[in-house]
């Protein structure tokens, strides 16, 4: 078993996931990188120090068997799992006559069921380690946004985070929902001014996991200074 702590991240190939992986390695973690884009994962793993520091594991989070395989690979490589960050997700245009039903289906399955699958796949190992579970929510999961089915998925994540926190009470596992406002990541097609950077969210993630074991930061709502809603 590795003496180093192990940090699993879904949606790890770009944006908040990749930034969190970099900060986690700087903080001394081994990282397990899960996403659908194998080439980006391999490039990130090489950047982070190769096989000694990072394990790249292609994964579609809507497939529970693939999520189980990611956890099994992490345990086989390092024998433990200390942090799991259910971060995979994507959005949709606002308007209930926008996007295709197929896009909606994929988004709901990824953002909601994918997060639940990550919880289910990682929970036994997290209980063994008295570890930390994090979910990527959103400001959009704290207020209704006109025409936004994406917002509805993030309301689900907000509720999921509190439900699993209550279930884990007394186990030593901590639970945090990270709720970013507008972040300059590939999530948004058009660049914008006054947005947060992925590194800003990664620092918040590492803040939550670096607290003493008796401190559980349940929610971190992070907006850019200029964001109105």
Using brief descriptors, characterize the structure shown.
229 residues; alpha/beta; Rossmann fold; two-stranded parallel ribbon; 9 strands; 17% strand; globular
Task: Present the secondary structure layout.
Layout: E1 6-10, H1 15-26, E2 30-35, H2 38-47, E3 54-58, H3 64-78, E4 83-86, H4 101-129, E5 132-136, H5 149-168, E6 174-180, E7 183-184, E8 196-197, H6 198-209, E9 219-222
CATH level-two architecture: 3-Layer(aba) Sandwich
Number of strands: 9
Number of domains: 1
Q: What's the total helix number?
A: 6
**Cα end-to-end separation:** 46 Å
- Give the C-level CATH assignment: Alpha Beta
How would you characterize the overall build of this protein?
The protein is α/β, with parallel strands linked by helices and 229 residues long. The chain has a single domain (6-222), classed as NAD(P)-binding Rossmann-like Domain (Rossmann fold), CATH 3.40.50.720. Helix content is 43%, strand content 17%. The chain has 6 helices and 9 strands. The strands form 2 sheets. Strands 3-2-1-4-5-6-9 form a 7-stranded parallel β-sheet, sandwiched between helices. Strands 7-8 form a two-stranded parallel sheet. Helix 3 (64-78) packs parallel to helix 4. The longest helix has 29 residues, at 101-129. The model has no long low-confidence stretch (mean pLDDT 93).
